[in-house]
Amino acid sequence: MKQTFGYIVILCSIPLLLLIGSEVWKEIGKARQHEQLITQSIELPEVVSTLPINLYDANKDIFSEEYTEWSQPLALNEIPEIVKQLFIYSEDENFYNHIGFDVSAIARAFIANTSEQSIQQGGSTITQQLVRMRYLSTDKTYERKLMELFYAYEIEKTYSKDEILEMYLNEMYFSNQVYGIGAAATYYFNRPLTKLSLAEIAFIAAIPNSPSLYDPIHHFENTKNRQERLIDKLTEHGAITATEATAYKDEIIQLEVKQKTQQYPSYSTFVLQELKWLIAEQTGYRELIDKTSDKMEKEFLQLELQKKIDLILRQGINVYTALQPEKQRQDEIAINRILPNTDLQASATVIDNETREVVSIFGGKDYKKHDLHRAYQAPRQPGSAFKPISVFAPYFETTTGTKNSIINGGPYCIGNFCPENYGRIWYNNVTVETAFKNSINTSALRIFNTVGVDTAFSYIDRFGFQSIVDKDHTYAAALGGLTYGVTSLELADAYSSFIDGFYSPVRSIRKVTDLTGKVLYSWSRDREEIWSATTTKTMRDLLNATVTSGTARGLYSASGYVGAKTGTTNAFKDYWVAGLTKDYTTAIWIGYDKPRSMDSIESSKIHFSIFNAITD
């Protein structure tokens, strides 16, 4: 009976809605286009709220909040009764009696609008306002208004009055990208809704009527004036006395506007990227994308993946990370202090040797949120810093050679590839250790030729080098000559295999949960043995020898062990140092975003100073 009555009311209201104006029959024609909506059930679109993403450090403290909309939905029983009264009395006194719209209110609104020849006055119920927020534009046209009635009626059939009121209170816009009464309380007063006074509740309840006009940050007095009118509404309906109303109006309103927690942007930006990698991995999209060679299919899969990620992020999640906040802070201060006041840039990644987690990361000097993150977004040629991965470890792993084996350091060509040694110094027969610690290119190329390109890359490809491509499978790779290069994140990740010979991709994320604490995603911590115990010990000895008597002299650590390898590319465009101490594995790059020679600052050893500062 209720449904039949609803249809009759809608049909009867159409002539009334279209009575005013010179284009009556044109409007009736438009209305007939919606006949199906009257005779069939309207399928309401799915609505997904946007909730915050909270990033937690290793101490389980929030260090960054990521959201475009501030939203904290509450159950209706968590919302004080006075809040419900404020909105019902001011917006829709007949809320619990109508079927989604109020015919008498609509009639009053249309009559009032006749003189202005446009739709200005509302007459909208709470249900209609919810429809507008969820499904329709705010255009003031009769066609949109008619659609609003159909949707409102459908919502009333689908949900109870209390459910509609709960959705309404949680989805209203409170200016400044704040949605819902609960979020408004914490945003404007930094307290939960239940801890606000009636005066404060009435103050934020004033905002949704016109979020621009009643924005309390920019138009405080406007908001205060409307607050007082709302308090009068409560008095009119007997919710409070006149004496109480006066006291509430006189109460001083002191805003305490919430500021986003946005610490350590280098780390949080990286975490958000790793989060996308994690979701891609565990939803199977990464495997599908990697397997397909069809460009259009790859693009389609990437689009589908992004939709999946967006949906997950909108639902609100907690991301628990390995960030050591004090170390991150100290490392940022140290690197920014060491870098000169020029456009010289740097990136650095620090890994905890015990957990294989990224505990500190540096994306660039004076890094701002979502700038180019040089630690993972800007691959550069690694030079000789790549040799431990590409040449020496594979050599010890696949041959009987030792650090005392003899290798020639004189001129050497493979085809037309004829590298020179640093300073154009040529050597006779030297030990592998000497070739390593003095970074003799021709010796490294001879060893690489012994190992073979395919064998060498069978090891290189076990690590997470995203920018290494098939055409890098050449002899130039022995010396770090790559098409794009590597990042400090990737190089530190590969060097972590020299901790004990085992490799597990380094991560910043420990787990991802929904807002109830249910674990949604976490990385597998499986480990793979890359290097034998003998190879690992030999590599650690060579890295240490490079620090004590080779190209890395000047590095130090109080931890009891330090080993490293340096890298310099052609024309001094990139300086690298990568290595280990007892506690940390790190890789550091310095250079200019637009590559140019750093010959003039070579003797400053800026990358050495950074290494010493962040591994201490």
From TrEMBL:
**Keywords linked to the UniProt accession:** Carboxypeptidase, Cell membrane, Cell shape, Cell wall biogenesis/degradation, Glycosyltransferase, Hydrolase, Membrane, Multifunctional enzyme, Peptidoglycan synthesis, Protease, Transferase
Which InterPro entries is this protein grouped with? Beta-lactam/transpept-like, Glyco_trans_51, Glycosyltr_51/Transpeptidase, Lysozyme-like_dom_sf, PBP_transglycosylase, PCN-bd_Tpept
Where is the protein situated, by its record's location annotation?
Cell membrane
Per the record, the major location class is: membrane
Protein known as: Transglycosylase domain-containing protein
State the reactions this protein catalyses.
[GlcNAc-(1->4)-Mur2Ac(oyl-L-Ala-gamma-D-Glu-L-Lys-D-Ala-D-Ala)](n)-di-trans,octa-cis-undecaprenyl diphosphate + beta-D-GlcNAc-(1->4)-Mur2Ac(oyl-L-Ala-gamma-D-Glu-L-Lys-D-Ala-D-Ala)-di-trans,octa-cis-undecaprenyl diphosphate = [GlcNAc-(1->4)-Mur2Ac(oyl-L-Ala-gamma-D-Glu-L-Lys-D-Ala-D-Ala)](n+1)-di-trans,octa-cis-undecaprenyl diphosphate + di-trans,octa-cis-undecaprenyl diphosphate + H(+); Preferential cleavage: (Ac)2-L-Lys-D-Ala-|-D-Ala. Also transpeptidation of peptidyl-alanyl moieties that are N-acyl substituents of D-alanine
What residue stretches are annotated with the Penicillin-binding protein transpeptidase domain? 347-593
Could you list the residue ranges that cross the membrane?
none
Tell me, what's a Pfam family for it?
Transpeptidase
Q: Which residues form the Glycosyl transferase family domain?
A: 67-234
Q: Where does the source fall among the domains of life? A: Bacteria
